[in-house]
Amino acid sequence: MSLFQDLVIAYRVLADYGIIDAYGHISVRCPDNPNRFWMARSVAPELVTEADMMEFDMESEPVDARGRSPVNERYIHGEVYKARPEVMAVVHNHSPSVIPFCCSDTPLQPIFHMSAFIGLGVPNWEIREAREGSDMLVRDNYLGASLARRLGNHPAALMRGHGAVVVGESLQIAVGRSVYLEQNARMQFQAELLAGPGGKITFMDEKEVAANVVWQEYGRFWNLVRNKYIRKLEEESA
Ligand SMILES: [Zn+2]
């Protein structure tokens, strides 16, 4: 078991679940240096291998690029790590079912227990408030810091017209939250169709959210996907 192997698995899992497409990325903070993090070079997540991992400083600049290109939106990661010392992993995705919620007035709410963390609040970042006329990408530390401020102490933030940033105290939590954020968005949309305009939907309440989030670490989910993907990666390298 290694940090890089787990990071490769996180990329592959989120790609297979449709959470990240050719462009999403995942990082982990270095366990032995809180001012550094690791993330894959600019390559489609399904193709990521351990050799693609690059080290970054807190300004999101590569420590030793060796000719490899970092992803444009690496500033999301550095600025979140600066602002949130307890965060050990960051996911940036373009989770398709989540996008409608970042472009409308309908807030995401926790519709089932696996996504209770949504009840802790998922703010929506409006890039126009930081910079008018952008190409929507977080291409520098100024935009990264603006996004990190909007994220605040929450487990995730939406990015209007773009996607989301999801954080966790471990890689498995950030990956689990990303998977269940997408599922929650889909289920909530389905429930709203079923209920119709003005119809009633019962979401988890504050007490239920509080009782769930204290233990929910997505351990069984992570164990399942790790086992599957370790086998796949072994087959690839055979
Ligand atoms: Zn993006």
What's the SSE pattern? Answer: HEEEHEHEHEEHHH
Can you list the ligands bound to this structure? zinc ion
CATH-defined topology = L-fuculose-1-phosphate Aldolase
CATH architecture: 3-Layer(aba) Sandwich
What is the CATH class?
A: Alpha Beta
Number of domains: 1
Given as residue ranges, the uncertain stretches (5+ residues, pLDDT < 50) are none
What share of residues is helical? Answer: 25-40%
Fourth CATH level, the homologous superfamily: Class II aldolase/adducin N-terminal domain
Largest sheet: 7 strands, mixed
Strand content: 15-25%
Sheet with most strands: strand arrangement: 3-2-1-4-7-6-5
Arithmetic mean of pLDDT: 95
* Cα end-to-end separation: 18 Å
Write a structural description:
The chain is α+β, with helices and mostly antiparallel strands and 238 residues long. 38% of the residues lie in helices and 15% in strands. The chain has a seven-stranded mixed sheet with strand order 3-2-1-4-7-6-5, sandwiched between helices. The longest helix is centred in the last third of the chain and has 25 residues, at 171-195. The radius of gyration is 17 Å and the shape is globular. It starts with a helix and ends with a helix. The mean pLDDT is 95. Residues 23, 73, 92, 94, 162-163 line the site of zinc ion. Pfam families: Aldolase_II (PF00596). This is HCOMODA/2-hydroxy-3-carboxy-muconic semialdehyde decarboxylase.
